[in-house]
Amino acid sequence: MSELLDIRDLVVEYHTEVGTVHAVNGISIQMKTGDTLGFVGETGAGKTTTALSILRLLQIPPARFASGEIWFDGKDLLKVSEKEMRSIRGSEIAMIFQDPMTALNPVIPVGQQIAEVLIQHNEITKAQSWEMAEKMLEKVGIPAARANNYPHQFSGGMKQRVVIAMALACTPKLIIADEPTTALDVTIQAQILDMMKQLKEDSGTSILLITHDLGVVAETCDKVAIVYGGEVVEYGSLEQIFDRTTHPYTVCLFGALPSLDKKVDMLTPIEGQIYDAISPPSGCRFHPRCPHAAEECSKKVPDVVEVEPGHPVRCLYANRFYAQNAEGRR
Amino acid sequence: MFRFILKRVLLFIPTILGVLFIVFTINYYTPSDPVYATYGTNLTQEEYEQKRDEMGLNDPFFVQFFNYVKNAARLDLGSSYNNKRPVMDQILERAPKTLLLGAIGITITVVIGILCGIVSATRQKSGLDYALTTISLILASMPNFWLGLMLIIVFSQMLGWLPATGIKNWTGWILPCITLGLGPLANVVRITRSSMLDVIRQDYIRTARSKGLTERQIIYKHALRNALIPVVTVIGFMLSMIMGGSAVVEGIFSFPGIGAMLMSAVSLADYPLIMGSVLFISLFVCVVNLGVDILYGFIDPRIKAQYVTAKKVKKAAARNGKEGSLA
Ligand SMILES: Nc1ncnc2c1ncn2[C@@H]1O[C@H](COP(=O)(O)OP(=O)(O)OP(=O)(O)O)[C@@H](O)[C@H]1O
Ligand SMILES: [Mg+2]
């Protein structure tokens, strides 16, 4: 089966007064229809920038697509006309944003905000679109009667449900969910994730799930891409990443994960300064913080090593760590 | 909503009483004599005293004020000292013209101001944006009496296109309306621009874009209503400025409205006419402010929610409670 989404060597920069921000430095990811890909990384890793690039929603300037291609369903999204891009947004690719509190327009009833995307992409009347919007609301667990309400009359969790209803309205092929639960409290988080999983199974859409929570990834994804400093440093199936963790950064992320059976009282934060996108370090971008960094790491830019089929890792010593970590687990 | 309006209308009363009291006090202590103003200066001492008594000027201050308010409540505003005609008649005769002048002025301000603000914001940092920003800065720094005089010099004296004074036909309206509208225009442009720039950066605009809407839909359906919230607030504040400005503008153009009447009444110390004009203007400002507040509720649903009265909320709560106990 061919790829639904194929991002090749995407490079995105922001030109600001303090200098050029190298936000995305050659990210490549592939997704097939029906996949749920977890896109994991610390703050500032370039996750949102990548997501917005797919929909071409970045403000240009300051942003600039330096190079790369984004193939979606046989089209290079960076090359298509603005008009064609508009017909893709909302109907074929939809996005769920990081903060539901600000993602909805405060002066428009939520039903109308959902109906709007339906009218935009389908040949239907206003009345039909309103009916469908009410159905969508019920699907995400909000009574249809509340379609007339304004966003300020909903709680955070309900707002995120509305946003999800809006994203699903046109049954897109791909949904990009940018930390859909970060702004919500834990119980609501679980509800929303369950609901997304259910809806995904019903409609067969693919989801690109951006998060910095590995627990969420374990729950919902089948593929994982770990990003650091605007690069994918490790990519693989859920199993490959969780059971045969290879890249030192991924290991650190797991170290920073609270775990019941490991008996840690406190999170172990990853040592050192987070990645500086304005003046990136030489060589491997992670070397200043890497516990295993060698002399060589600061000089040589590591290539991608395929440690096993479908499990590429960007590290000079990828094979060694792969063997070691697989050993250690046994 | 109805109760909200009623409450606001009742609040007009203390507001207007306050305004009247202040103006009355100023008039009272102004060293000019209503008797001389009305009957001229060649009165004998006896005649003078008699007239003074007739006009109630020997009553204590508060009695005089009370009598004025009592008569005003019966729509009797007294007669002008100067031309002896009832103040009410003069106001009714001139009010439509002033209202129309104000309405056109406000419309010019609001429509042109908001349009220029949008254009300026959506083409931020373009030549057009810089031009509009510069022009509005220049306009903002011109007092309207000066602007009015300049317009007269250019369009009446030099070009001879438009009459400098009077409103014999519609051409006479053009300069007063423009002068009145242009002053506050600059503020509206600047507020709309900055508010629009702020709104365009909001997350919900990005959401709208992610739905595949066109740029036009995004600006007019999603951004504008939000951007107008601060603009409406500012327009509310500016209305009193516009009304105050209309007195000056009417004076310059000898426009036969309330403002010009007020100006000449002040110079002739014609107190009943001053009081009547002020009463009219403050009532107008109150009504327009109420209008702005209602409009505000229509633009922003969060504000409208506050207009629902406490009683209604209690009723709704009681109803829900009943349903709850039934279930
Ligand atoms: N509009 C912008 N102008 C300049 N720099 C930006 C802009 N947006 C993002 N950046 C920079 O680009 C880098 C990547 O940002 P991005 O928002 O993609 O990170 P992220 O992985 O989504 O982080 P988070 O988990 O906090 O959402 C950061 O260094 C950030 O400071
Ligand atoms: Mg982000």
Can you put this structure into words, describing what you see?
With 330 residues, chain A is of the alpha/beta class. Chain A contains eleven helices and twelve strands. In chain A, a hairpin with a 2-residue loop joins strand 11 (304-308) and strand 12. In chain A, helix 4 packs across helix 5 (126-139), helix 4 runs parallel beside helix 6 (156-168) and helix 5 packs across helix 6 (156-168). The longest helix of chain A is centred in the middle third of the chain and has 18 residues, at 186-203. Chain A is globular, with a radius of gyration of 21 Å. With 327 residues, chain B is mostly helical. Chain B has two domains: 2-73, no CATH class; 88-268, MetI-like (MetI-like fold). In chain B, 80% of the residues lie in helices and 0% in strands. Chain B contains 14 helices and no strands. Chain B has helices spanning 2-28, 34-39, 45-54, 61-73, 87-122, 127-140, 144-158, 171-200, 203-210, 215-252, 258-267, 271-299, 301-307, 310-326. Chain B is flat and about 85 Å long. In chain B, 29% of the residues are buried. The chains are: A alpha/beta (330), B mainly alpha (327). Bound molecules: adenosine-5'-triphosphate (ATP) and magnesium ion. Magnesium ion is lined by residues 47-48, 98, 178 of chain A. The site of adenosine-5'-triphosphate (ATP) has 15 residues of chain A, from strand 1, strand 2 and helix 1.
CA radius of gyration of chain B is 25 Å
Task: Estimate the global geometry of chain B from the Cα principal axes.
Answer: flat
**Distance from first to last alpha carbon of chain B:** 31 Å
**Series of secondary-structure elements of chain A, N-terminal to C-terminal:** EEEHEEHEHHHHEHEHEEHHEEH
**Number of alpha- plus pi-helical segments of chain A:** 11
- Average pLDDT of chain A, rounded to a whole number, is 84
Stated plainly, the CATH topology of the largest domain in chain B is called: MetI-like fold
**Percent helix of chain A:** 25-40%
pLDDT < 50 stretches of chain B: 321-327
Tell me about the biggest sheet of chain B?
A: none
Shape of chain A: globular
The tally of structural domains of chain B comes to 2
The topology string of helices and strands of chain B comes to HHHHHHHHHHHHHH
How many strands, which pairing sense, and closed or not: the largest β-sheet of chain A? 6 strands, mixed
User: Which structural class fits the helix and strand makeup of chain A?
Assistant: alpha/beta
